[in-house]
């Protein structure tokens, strides 16, 4: 596997970045042109407005999906960095007690993650706070 650096870590997905984005832009432009023509004819305005609204919704949906994926990736990277210093001690202890703790730690706020991971390893915390061991 090649060494990761700034030059090779970025990835462009042609289907998402060019095809989907291009189709959304073309659809939005066409739907706005259709709305303008409908306003000029004084007919079909509601249908044309719905098409514009649906196109905007699809564009927002595509943007949010990408944003959420990037946030999840960033959080995973931060978690790896936080745990790197105490990885062997904490992760071995957590693995011994089961995957429930690891799954529960996914929901920990970033600022509390490292401390909760240590506590889970040292004190054997249960995944569900209401069912302490």
Order of helices and strands: HHHHHH
The CA-CA distance between the termini, in Å, is 43 Å
Largest pleated sheet: none
- What's the average pLDDT? 78
- Supply Rg: 24 Å
Shape: elongated
Characterization of this structure:
The chain is mostly helical and 133 residues long. It has two domains: 1-72; 85-133, no CATH class. 78% of the residues lie in helices and 0% in strands. It has six helices and no strands.
How do the strands and helices of this protein lay out in sequence?
Elements: H1 6-9, H2 14-41, H3 45-84, H4 87-97, H5 99-105, H6 110-123
In brief:
With 133 residues, the chain is mostly helical. It is built from six helices and no strands.
Q: Top keywords for this entry?
A:
133 residues; mainly alpha; 2 domains
């Amino acid at each position: 596997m090649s060494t990761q650096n700034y030059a090779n870590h970025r990835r462009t997905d042609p289907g998402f970045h060019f095809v989907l984005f291009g189709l959304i832009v073309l659809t939005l432009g066409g739907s706005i042109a259709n709305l303008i023509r409908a306003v000029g004819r004084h007919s079909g305005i509601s249908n044309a407005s719905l098409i514009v609204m649906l196109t905007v919704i699809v564009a927002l949906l595509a943007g949010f999906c990408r944003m959420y994926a990037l946030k999840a990736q960033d959080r995973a990277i931060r978690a790896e960095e936080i745990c790197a210093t105490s990885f062997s001690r904490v992760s071995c202890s957590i693995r011994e007690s089961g995957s429930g703790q690891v799954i529960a730690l996914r929901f920990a706020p970033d600022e509390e993650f490292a401390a909760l991971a240590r506590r889970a390893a040292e004190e054997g915390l249960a995944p569900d706070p209401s069912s302490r061991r």
